[in-house]
Every structure is written in structure tokens, then in C-alpha cells.
């Protein structure tokens, strides 16, 4: 996303984006801990069309989202010095 131009006159502050970021990460951590899911290395989350959902105060059909959980797992087909190395693998997806 770094290659996109900056949005002019945004209402969101640095503190607000940092708070949203912390909320998403901590909520993910809390959920994984509660559900005893310990193999997740990475979470990829995307949502678009949010402005209409924000206007109506609930998730509307205009909002598309997806989430992918990724883990690290040894792969016998990929080795380094004769030993299997850990590679990124998809654990679960939701769309």
C-alpha cells in the first residue's frame, strides 16, 4: 500500500490509526489464546467498502472482507544443509 498517494485532508489522526491497529492485533491475540490456537504466525486481513457499513452502523453487503491465517511448518521438500526448513503455509481462510 505504500505506493498509493496520500489521501488529502483525512479526518483520522495518527493516534486513531494506532489505536485501531492495537485493537485488531490484541483482539486477534485474545481470540487465538482463548481458542488455544498456537500455530498462527501471521494474519492477513482486508476489508473494503466499509464507508457504507459505517454509515448504517452494521456490516452491509457492500463490505467485502477476507482473512487468512498463516503458520510456519517444516517442509521435507525444502531443506537447508539436509534439514527441513519451516515455510509459510495457509492454515485457514475466511471470505
Mind explaining what this structure looks like?
The protein is α+β, with helices and mostly antiparallel strands and 95 residues long. It has one domain. The chain has 2 helices and 3 strands, in the order H-E-H-E-E. The protein has a 3-stranded antiparallel beta sheet, with no helix packed on it. A hairpin with a 2-residue loop joins strand 2 and strand 3. The model has no long low-confidence stretch (mean pLDDT 91).
Order of helices and strands: HEHEE
> Number of helix segments?
2
Give start-end ranges of low-pLDDT stretches. Answer: none
Shape: elongated
What's the assembly state of these chains? single chain
Numbering strands along the chain, what is their spatial order in the largest sheet? Answer: 1-2-3
| Straight-line N-to-C gap | 21 Å
Radius of gyration: 18 Å
Q: What class would the helix/strand composition place it in?
A: alpha+beta
The biggest beta sheet reads: 3 strands, antiparallel
